[in-house]
Structures are given as C-alpha cells and as structure tokens.
Amino acid sequence: MQGIKEFIPTEVKVKYINQLLKVGFDTIDFGSFVSPKAIPQMRDTAEVLEKLELENTTSKLLAIIANTRGAEDAAQHRQIDYLGFPLSVSETFQQRNTNKSIAEAMQQLAEIQEICQKHNKTLVTYISMGFGNPYEDPWDVETVIRFVQELDKLQVKIVSLSDTIGVATPDNITYLFSHLIPAFKHIEFGAHLHTTPSTWQEKVAAAYEAGCRRYDGALRGYGGCPMAKDELVGNMPTENLVGFFENKGLNLNLNKAALQAAMAESGAVFL
After folding, report:
1. Distance of CA 179 to CAs 153, 211, 215, Å?
2. In Å, how far from its chain's centre is CA 2?
3. What are phi and psi of 265, to 5 degrees?
4. Per the confidence metrics, is the pTM higher than 0.85?
5. Do the Cβ atoms of 42 and 11 come closer than 8 Å?
6. pLDDT at 218
7. Is 5 within a domain?
8. Within a domain: residue 161?
9. Which tens digit of pLDDT belongs to each residue from 19-39?
10. What domain count does the chain have?
11. Where residue 48 sits, what CATH number does that domain have?
12. Neighbour-count burial of 233, counting CB atoms closer than 10 A to its CB (0-12 exposed, 13-18 middle, 19+ buried)
C-alpha cells in the first residue's frame, strides 16, 4: 500500500487485513511505523492495529520500521511479533530509503535488535538491493555474504534477501541461497522477490531448489518499493506462490474460501 499516493481509508485497510488474517498465512505485513511525512499512507498503522481481529487467527503480525523511534513505537504493541528493517547493500538506496548511510543503518540495526530483545520481538532484516541495484553502486554475491556475517554477529535470526527492483536472476538467486543457508544454519532465510509476470516462476523455483522456505508475497502482485525508482516492479503474487507450492505437493493449510474472498477484497483496496 505504501506506494499508493491517494490515502486508503482506515476502515478499508482494516477490512482487507482482517480477511487476510482468516486465510492461514504464517505472517501478515500489516503496516509501518515510519514518518508520516515520508510515507503518508502508513500514518494510521496504530489505529489499524487496534481494529484487527486477532482472536481466531494463527497468523503473526509484522510491522516495518526505519529507525529506533519506529522500533520503540512498534515494540509497545503486544500484538506485533516481528519488526522488519530494510538494510541495503547499496549506499544510494540506503540514503534514499531511510536517510542514512549504511554505517549509520548498521548502528541503528544494533540498537533495534536490543529493543526487540527487550520487548520479546523478533527482528526481520531485509537485505535490500540484495540482487543488484540501478545506481552503479558496487554489488556482488560476496558483498551480500559479508552483510549476512555482520547480521549474524548481532544475532539476527531472520534475513530476507530482497529483489527490490526485480533484477534477480535464477543464477544469483541459486548462488546466494545455496551458499548462505548451509553456512548459517541458525538463520532463517527468506525471499522477498519483485517480478514481472513472465519471470516469477523461474525466480521462485531457483530459491526453492536452493533450500529457501520463507517467501513474501502480495495478492495479485500489487505494490513495489516507492523509494527504489520511478518504474515500480510488482511484488511476487501470493496466488502464484500458493499454486507453485501446491504443485510441489506441499500442504499449506490455507483456507481457500478465505483466500478467494481476500482476492476479491483486494480490488477495493488497490484501485
């Protein structure tokens, strides 16, 4: 939702997220505790949270934060399980996304990890531009691996490699996951893939065959990162992920009727 300029009414957000909570997804990324000046769409996250129906859901809640202030705000809410922080291997994008250098972001990340540990939250770190960037900043797989090594020192337990602008290839997806997963067995690695309709399956297949079992998606592939560049590349469609894993014979334990209702509801949100 964050890239949509016209404000989505709070009640519309609440209705949609409540429907998602009925499906059986492991985690719902429901909002962001960020500056309302930077991301006006997310200014009602706390209000949305208080109206969510959490009594009968198995899904956990994740909130995105960009600094220690956001982490402190999010950590006060008992309903939230995960705090997600975007850490970029691109200096340009880190400045553009959080108004910090990589060094400053790493320092903030250490402080955010302390906040999470104090409040019994789990930190999810997204390695933004994890598969390349459009800014001509240095990138290679060894750089990504070094970032993971630094996160490991902070005892970060969940790391999601993010294809922020949709440039990941099956080769670099395979290389990174097949090297990182065996080397850091105590870290859960995820794939946050942006894609075009013609390339989604090869990306998911590469990550899956390399051992990745945590995936982010958005119904119908709506969204992208508004801080990345002007031409947004869509998120990975959740329904594509569901079909892919079911074809693999996996039992996802999803409520299909609730999923179809959420698909229908998404049309009222993403006009």
Report:
1. 18, 10, 18
2. 12
3. -65, -30
4. yes
5. no
6. 93
7. no
8. yes
9. 999 999 999 999 999 999 889
10. 1
11. 3.20.20.70
12. buried
